[in-house]
Design a protein that fits this description.
heterodimer; A: alpha/beta; Rossmann fold; 5-stranded parallel β-sheet; 25 helices; globular; B: mainly alpha; Cytochrome Bc1 Complex, Chain D, domain 2; two-stranded antiparallel ribbon; 5 helices; 2 strands; about 50% helix
Chain lengths: ~650, ~120
């Protein structure tokens, strides 16, 4: 891993910084600037505090200001010309952060006010009616844009709302820049809400699924932690980070702005796998008869897909895209995702790149009374892993999946390591191997074409049925967007039909899933992704699960308020359908009949009219569409709305899957 | 799937493969398709296999059953055993008569058609 920094300059800055005393939050009132009559008021810092020079220790570790505590309260000033929040806003503007998603809260009112007035709404505030929406929007945005946006919330109650979305972002290895408000000092809290909204260590709630957190005790501390947080979040494996901001630190005047400095942000070069290990992997792949590449959260940037295509074509080998990111073109002849069982079963060498659950991808698991499993690969198959997940892991939440034995494990960022691997593969490929590769590639291309034809044939079943089949819905939707610069930013029916029927040929055609399978992701994450697509004129589309939308319907208002162009096509099967099926399985185990499985799993009686819900939030809405013949025209009208720069929703009553 | 279960399903698969479509076409539906539709919806077959028998997914892909070529006896074995993670339907939940009715219903459903007749599938 290489950090692009000028170490000499850093050292110089460090010395300069040590020469200055750190401005503690308890010293702020020394610098209060009063105006008008308030200027005549009693100085707000105690005489004792002014007279006592601070020791070196007191400069670094905040000490209780006994003088202030023992003096009678000074006369209140009524205005101030600076605030810690102003400085914090300036710091955020030196980072590469475009937006600040939030649900407003008093514990960060100081920073909020500073952003809207001092830095003139930069980062631009996104108003979200739920903290989960704010985090999920950041998750969706980061995957399209390749960089984080910030969100801020109350440190206690807001963070509790935000937790599910933070967990999704963690599992999805997505950088989200989280800030929370807190009131650290007990004697500064107003009675009532400020007590129940404060905590000694608010980040403890999410520490198992953020990569790093801090609660700065001074503004200089904030500046350094703010830059550190960004760098930590963006270093693979990427993940959310959190800063807890004391309310007084945000609100009080700054003693001496000139003594504060903002460190330079240096971007991190992702870690590349060891060159010897890369060469060994290349040797194994070139020598293999049936090598296969399998990848999940591999593509971090548009270069990822290009690099994977280059490696696959150099080897003429099968690629299985687990769709955690937009890794490989759906219509590339080497894309064998639709026949992964056969590919894994025939492979003699498997290279797994940035896999989330390798064991789950290489084994069959039986969810029966006696749970059992078996490998899908043949004995002797060599398995190589390449990825950054092993570089940072936590213990409690088990998102790392079951341990999988491998033959060669390369710790390094997948996307960054691919060029070196491809180069080695090309170097080792002689004429004989090249000829064998071409023959293999031809067979794979035939198999790929067969799966495409099979998909089309399968899609014809129930073509005119009502409720509408998901295949028909996806075919109708694609007809309306295929000539646009489209981006599928969310999918509540899993990837199946779009991936089988649509041409995913660009890096932004797909934006991955939730990560933690936490419901309430698709609607807001899709809006965040659409916000990133907006500046490039892309048409964003989300196939929106009805159950997911019910968790975060307020997302629609945010999309309308911020003029986010996105088409939500509601896959309205009127159920939490996976749970419905699980309940059926449980009932069948007992031979109790399964006619009661709808209880607690369905969203009927009354049926939900999502088009009317959308209209209530100021979003164009159509539906419920029950006749497949009506679907195409409805989607066409909705796409026209999106092309005007606004959100739209079409509610489609669909078959379960 | 346990070893016994898997072996049974593999055997059924081989039987289907070796007999071919002609053999299955000789098996006339013996059930009541109208009642089969009612039961198919009531006992939840549609949740994985779709109301039109188009297939779907549970923990694994659930195959399309429209216009099934599977003989009734083999169909019943699938129901009673439940391959992969499919819930097993015992006789106390689903009688042989109801299984036959469902089978007849599935046989009556239109199956796959040539995709060339569907412009939307050739984009």
């Amino acid at each position: 891993m290489v950090f692009l920094s000028v170490t000499g300059r850093e050292e110089q800055m460090r010395k300069k910084f040590l020469d200055q005393s750190i401005v503690s939050r308890r010293d702020f009132l020394k610098g209060v600037t009063l105006t008008g009559a308030a200027a005549l008021a009693t100085p707000v810092v105690s005489a004792r505090a002014q007279q006592s020079p601070t020791t070196e220790h007191e400069r670094v570790v905040p000490q209780p200001n006994i003088g202030a505590e023992t003096q009678p309260p000074p006369k209140d000033p009524v205005t101030q010309t600076t605030s810690g929040g102003d400085f914090m806003a300036e710091v955020l503007n030196t980072l590469d952060i475009d937006y600040l998603a939030m649900n407003c809260a008093s514990s960060f009112r100081g920073l909020h006010e500073a952003i809207i007035n001092h830095t003139r709404n930069k980062p631009e505030i996104l108003t979200c009616p739920h903290e989960e929406i704010a985090v999920s929007m950041a998750q969706g945005y980061a995957k399209i844009e390749g960089k984080p946006i910030a969100m801020i919330c109350h440190g206690v109650v807001g963070l509790q709302h935000a937790t599910m979305a933070i967990y999704n972002s963690w599992c999805d290895r997505v950088p989200v820049y989280i800030m929370i408000g807190n009131i650290v000092e007990a004697d500064k809290r107003a009675p009532g809400a400020e007590w129940v909204h404060s905590a000694i260590d608010p980040a403890a709630l999410v520490r198992d699924f953020v990569k790093w957190d801090d609660q700065p005790a001074s503004l200089q501390h904030f500046a350094e932690s703010a830059v550190r947080a960004y760098k930590v979040a963006m270093t693979p494996p990427m993940a959310p980070v959190l800063l807890s901001l004391d309310a007084e630190l945000q609100e009080n005047p700054i003693a001496d702005r000139d003594r504060l400095r903002i460190p330079k942000l240096t971007k991190v070069v992702p870690p590349v796998g060891d060159s010897g290990a890369i060469a060994e992997a290349a040797k194994m792949l070139v020598a293999a008869q049936n090598p296969a590449l399998i990848c999940d959260r591999m593509s971090r940037t548009p270069a990822g897909m290009t690099r994977l295509v280059e490696l696959a074509e150099a080897l003429q080998c099968a690629v299985i895209d687990q769709a955690g990111r937009m890794n490989f073109p759906s219509r590339h002849p080497l894309n064998q995702s639709a026949r992964r069982g056969a590919v894994v079963g025939q492979a003699d060498v498997i290279l797994a790149i940035e896999m989330n659950d390798l064991w789950g991808s290489l084994n069959s698991f039986s969810d029966r009374i006696v749970r059992s499993s078996r490998p899908n690969f043949k004995p002797g198959t060599k398995i190589i892993t390449l990825g950054s997940r092993d570089l940072y892991m936590k213990a409690n939440y088990q998102d790392f999946g079951r341990f999988n034995e491998v033959d060669l494990a390369i710790a390094g960022d997948g996307e960054a390591s691919l060029p070196a691997l491809t180069e080695q593969v090309k170097r080792l490929t002689d004429a004989n191997r090249k000829s064998a590769f071409e023959a293999r590639g031809k067979k794979l291309a035939e198999a790929h074409q067969a799966t495409r034809e099979q998909a089309k044939t399968d899609a014809t079943i129930g073509w005119d049925a009502s409720p509408i089949t998901t295949a028909r819905m996806c075919a109708e939707l694609y007809a309306q967007i295929k000539d646009e610069d489209w981006s599928l930013v969310g999918n509540g029916i899993r990837i199946t039909w779009p991936n089988r029927l649509w041409n995913f040929d660009k890096s932004y055609r797909w934006n991955g899933g939730s990560g933690g399978a936490g419901i309430g992701y698709t609607a807001p994450a899709s809006a965040g992704a659409a916000l990133a697509n907006k500046k490039r004129g892309r048409i964003s589309v989300a196939i929106q699960g009805d159950g997911d939308l019910m968790f975060v319907p307020g997302t629609l208002w945010t999309a309308a308020h911020h003029r986010i162009p996105i088409l939500y096509v509601v896959h309205n099967n009127r159920a939490y359908h996976q749970e419905y099926m699980y309940l059926q399985a449980m009932a069948n185990r007992h031979s109790r009949g399964i006619t009661n499985a709808h209880i607690g799993t369905t969203l009927t009686d009354p049926n939900i009219d999502y088009a009317t819900v959308a209209k209530g939030f100021g979003v164009y809405g159509e539906g419920p569409i029950t006749d497949p013949k009506d679907l195409g025209p409805a989607l066409k009208r909705a796409v026209a709305v999106v092309k005007r720069g606004e959100p739209a929703l079409v509610d489609v009553v669909t078959d379960p899957r | 799937m346990n070893k016994c279960n898997r072996g049974l399903v593999v055997a059924l698969g081989l039987l289907m493969f070796s007999a071919g479509d002609a053999a299955w076409s000789q098996t006339a539906p013996v059930g009541d398709a109208a009642n089969g539709k009612r039961v198919y919806l009531a006992v939840g077959c549609f949740t994985c296999h779709g109301r039109a028998g188009q297939g779907g997914s549970y923990n694994y892909p659930a195959p399309a059953l429209a216009e099934t070529k599977l003989p009734l006896e083999a169909f019943k074995v699938f129901l009673r055993v439940g391959p992969n993670d499919m819930p097993a339907y015992t006789e106390s939940v689903l009688s042989d008569k109801e299984a036959a009715d469902i089978h007849a219903f599935l046989r009556s459903l239109p199956g796959r058609r040539p995709p060339k007749d569907f412009p939307l599938l050739n984009q």
